[in-house]
Amino acid sequence: AQDREKTELVERLLSDSWYLSCVTPDTTDAEGHVFAHPQFESHLRANFRFEQWFAKHEYFLTSKSREFCVLDLTEDSLSQELVTKVIELGAGKFEL
After folding, report:
1. What tens digit of pLDDT does each residue of 33-43 get?
2. What is the rounded CA–CA span in Å between residue 19 and residue 43?
3. C-beta atoms surrounding 33 within 10 Å
4. Are 14 and 40 in contact (CB under 8 A)?
5. Could you give the angle at the alpha carbon of 93 between the alpha carbons of 38 and 66, nearest 5°?
6. Three-state SS annotation for the chain
7. Residue 31, pLDDT score
8. From residue 84, how far is each of 12, 15, 69 by CA, in Å?
9. How many other C-beta atoms are found inside a 10 Å radius of the C-beta of residue 2?
10. Burial 56-88 (b: 16+ CB within 10 A, else e)
11. Average pLDDT in the 66-95 region?
12. What's CA 9's distance to the chain center, in Å?
């Protein structure tokens, strides 16, 4: 049921024109293939490199005309580290 709720949330955000970068647990075997959508990307935590991600998206993340949010559904020590980094870049917390 929880996976279905997360899927519905992603679908809703994509339909509302959000761009989603998702970092998934390493136990997921579908990196990059969870949703075939031009505004969606997925990374396994073991393969995720924050500096490369930021370099790819820096133009959009620093644009004053865009809202930048973070949603942490894992809430473990690694996700908290990533959340801290994106909040330092100016992200707000996305509340469900």
Report:
1. 557 888 888 88
2. 14
3. 9
4. yes
5. 50
6. CHHHHHHHHHHHHHHCCCCEEEEECCCCCCCCCCCCCCCEEEEEHHHCCHHHHHHHHHHHHCCCCCCCEECCCCCCHHHHHHHHHHHHCCCEECCC
7. 46
8. 25, 27, 12
9. 7
10. eeeeebeeeeeebebeeeeeeeebeebbeebee
11. 81
12. 12
Residue type present at position 28: T
Question: And the tokens for 43?
Answer: 């990374």
Q: How confident is the model at residue 52 (pLDDT cuts 50, 70, 90)?
A: very high
Residue reference for tokens 């990307």: 41
Tokens of 83: 């959340």
Minimal CA–CA distance to 13: which of 33, 40, 51? 40
**Which is nearest to 39 in space by CA: 5, 66, 10, 81?**
10
Task: Name the pTM for this structure.
Answer: 0.74
